[in-house]
Specification:
Layout: H1 3-10, E1 12-16, E2 19-24, E3 29-34, E4 38-43, E5 48-53, H2 58-70, E6 80-83, E7 87-91, E8 96-97, H3 98-104, H4 110-125, E9 138-140, E10 146-148, H5 162-174, H6 185-212
Antiparallel strand pairs: 1-2, 3-4, 4-5, 5-7, 6-7, 8-9, 9-10
Length: 214
Amino acid sequence: MNFYKKLAESVQIQYINGKPMVVGQADSLKLIGVGRSAFVFLINNTTKAMKIFFPGLNNIALEEAYIYQIIKDIDFFPNIYGSGLNYIVIDYVEGYTLFECLTLGIPISEKEINEVDFALYLARKKGLNPSDVHLRNIIITPNGSIKVIDVARFRQSQKCPQWEDIKSAFSYFYLKPYFPKKFPAFLLNGIAYLYKKIYKKRLLSFYLRKAQAP
């Protein structure tokens, strides 16, 4: 049996009080994070991470694996080493997300923002439509380089303004000399919540206009 497949099959997920929980896993897996659609494990004694997608979300696992194959030669994204029905195996990326940088007061430079821009440009050249690019899926590594993770929504048909809005906020506010460089997590989460509400209204308005067009 494939090594990665065996590891993936060792992970047992149950919904408890409506939330997915890991109730079993191989000793060689260390749980290091959880997102909207998957748990993330570090494979012990390696520099690889395994994403195990929640039950019923196999389509996202297959989609993300497909996209990582498309961008595998772009250094700004993790390499992919294996995938299956409900998992992918990619580089484990050390460093701080932009969200963590803001909560810890770690400076974010214009160079790093430009690198994210370039990474997304290279993805577009591959025929993709980078979407859902936010503070938690951009990592600054210990050597100062950028890695963009969580690419499952890079083939959405509609245009996503999220990264452009983040970039504008960075230029108009963050770069100003006296603008604070450290924020409590609850404040950033509150801003993200309000942004999603506004974005959904934008999207609804777009589809209504499209439906009413002659």
